[in-house]
């Protein structure tokens, strides 16, 4: 049995940042946000637990001295050490894993998720989980389970190959359970999903206060991304079930959920977060660091900044630009930002689309720019074409630089822009082109919107407001420490045969 948790808050909070695919190993909006938070609070001791891809990623940010440690847990590197259980321990694992899988596949069994999830975490702690998931028994269990007639997956006639693929994905997804569960301070997940795993385990075992910040909605983005994954439906059902129930577990257990916009709040309330535990904290920028961009380019130019990724909707932007160029032949589109590893195919497809539409000579992929302000200054208008966003930094940075914007109506975009830019539906090239043409043809409107955008940032979205908001939250949550004895031997799962006969409700 774990003992009671430790002392109440000290004058200096200790915060463990939980990240996935972002800070401090990559660039992008969430990483910028993390760096702002860390740099803005030299009075707070930070530790980072980073879920990464391969484990070979280099640090992309210079870390200040009050970041005491960075621990990485790669999803696709060598598996965590450990030995597969045998005999009674293997049977206990399989009983737990069956409950876990049933919770993902059977809506009537979703209540099994939390107890099974935390028992799997115990298997991770004793070094048996990952080896067990790589064993034949785990895949064969799934192959039998999801073919039960009452489960929706049975209609798709899943194969053993499907079971092997799904089990492999689950094993990789659960690897963050190998991270130590912080017993002190606060855990702060800067996204939903796999980053939350160490925070949930720390809360369960030690009562460590868990804070969840969502910029975009992780679950929604998984739904979008899995449309193009090469797996059959049963495999997707397992993984999307995992992401959905993990999101709900995070919402239920967070001491506070801090969406970056009101749009996210609706998802979080629907996912089970009590409304009184939701506090919106907008992203902010330093207006002095993003001053007015100065003269516009002589040639009509649309600029875009971000990472080259399908979620950014660049195919919509390129199609919209092709319509713009039909009306304004000397227009050009400049795309600033890096292509993440694994995203090369998407960039090639975008370049191919530009060539197919006959605008390749006017569309340039500029790569990363040393000073992001140059990307905003490069355009008469700054474009945002994403199909999913939270409260995008590129948008409020461009607004601070006094540039008019055309953006898709996703996430908190409309909250950010107000009436200082034009907002269009996502995946609608015609609407985007119409908005861009209007601003290109009306310089007075463009200038008025740019001035209004900068004033809006100064009044509502400054970095100081963001930092002060989270400093207050850290100090508030430091007082939430409570003794939580957890008996990890209690509530063991029923035997596998009992479950197969419907013995678990």
From TrEMBL:
Residues 14-276 form the DUF3492 domain. Pfam families: DUF3492, Glyco_trans_1_4. InterPro entries: DUF3492, PelF-like. Coiled coil: none annotated. Gene3D superfamilies: Glycogen Phosphorylase B (3.40.50.2000). This is D-inositol 3-phosphate glycosyltransferase.
């Amino acid at each position: 049995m774990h003992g009671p948790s430790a002392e109440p808050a000290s004058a200096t909070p200790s915060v463990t940042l939980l990240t996935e695919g972002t800070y401090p190993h990559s660039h992008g909006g969430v990483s910028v946000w993390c760096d702002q938070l860390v740099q803005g609070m030299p009075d707070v001791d930070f530790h980072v637990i980073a879920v990464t891809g391969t484990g070979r990623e280099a640090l992309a940010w210079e870390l200040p001295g009050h970041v005491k440690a960075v621990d990485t847990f790669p999803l696709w590197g060598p598996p965590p050490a450990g030995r597969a259980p045998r005999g009674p321990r293997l049977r206990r694992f399989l009983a737990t894993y069956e409950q876990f899988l049933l919770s993902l596949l059977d809506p009537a069994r979703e209540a099994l998720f939390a107890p099974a999830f935390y028992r799997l975490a115990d298997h991770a702690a004793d070094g048996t989980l990952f080896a067990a998931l790589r064993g034949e028994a785990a895949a064969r269990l799934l192959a039998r389970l999801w073919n039960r007639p009452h489960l929706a997956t049975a209609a798709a006639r899943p194969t053993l190959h499907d079971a092997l693929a799904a089990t492999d994905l689950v094993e990789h997804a659960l690897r963050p359970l190998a991270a130590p569960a912080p017993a002190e301070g606060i855990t702060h997940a800067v996204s939903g999903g796999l980053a939350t795993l160490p925070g949930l385990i720390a809360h369960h075992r030690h009562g460590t206060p868990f804070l969840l910040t969502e910029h975009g909605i992780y679950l929604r983005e998984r739904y979008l991304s899995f449309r193009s994954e090469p797996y059959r439906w049963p495999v997707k059902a397992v993984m999307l079930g995992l992401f959905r129930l993990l999101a709900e577990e995070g919402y239920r257990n967070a001491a506070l959920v801090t969406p970056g916009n009101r749009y996210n709040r609706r998802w979080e309330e629907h996912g089970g977060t009590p409304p009184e535990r939701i506090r919106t904290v907008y992203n902010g920028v330093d207006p002095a660091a993003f001053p007015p961009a100065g003269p516009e380019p002589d040639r009509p130019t649309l600029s875009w900044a971000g990472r080259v990724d399908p979620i950014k909707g660049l195919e919509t932007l390129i199609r919209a630009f092709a319509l713009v160029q039909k009306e304004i032949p000397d227009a050009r589109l400049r795309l600033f930002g890096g292509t993440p590893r694994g995203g090369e195919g998407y960039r090639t497809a975008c370049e191919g689309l530009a060539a197919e539409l006959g605008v390749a000579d006017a569309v340039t992929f500029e790569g990363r720019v040393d000073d992001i302000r140059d990307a905003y200054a490069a355009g008469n208008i700054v474009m945002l074409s994403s199909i999913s966003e939270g409260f995008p930094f590129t948008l409020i940075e461009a607004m601070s630089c006094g540039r008019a914007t055309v953006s898709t109506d996703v996430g908190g975009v409309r909250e950010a822009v107000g009436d200082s830019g034009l907002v269009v539906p996502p995946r609608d090239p015609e609407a985007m082109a119409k908005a861009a043409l209007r601003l290109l043809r009306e310089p007075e409107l463009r200038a008025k919107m740019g001035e209004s955008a900068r004033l809006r940032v100064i009044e509502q979205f400054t970095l100081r407001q963001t930092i002060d908001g989270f400093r207050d939250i850290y100090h508030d949550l430091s007082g939430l420490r409570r003794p939580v004895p957890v008996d990890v031997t209690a509530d063991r799962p029923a035997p596998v045969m009992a479950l197969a006969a419907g013995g678990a409700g």
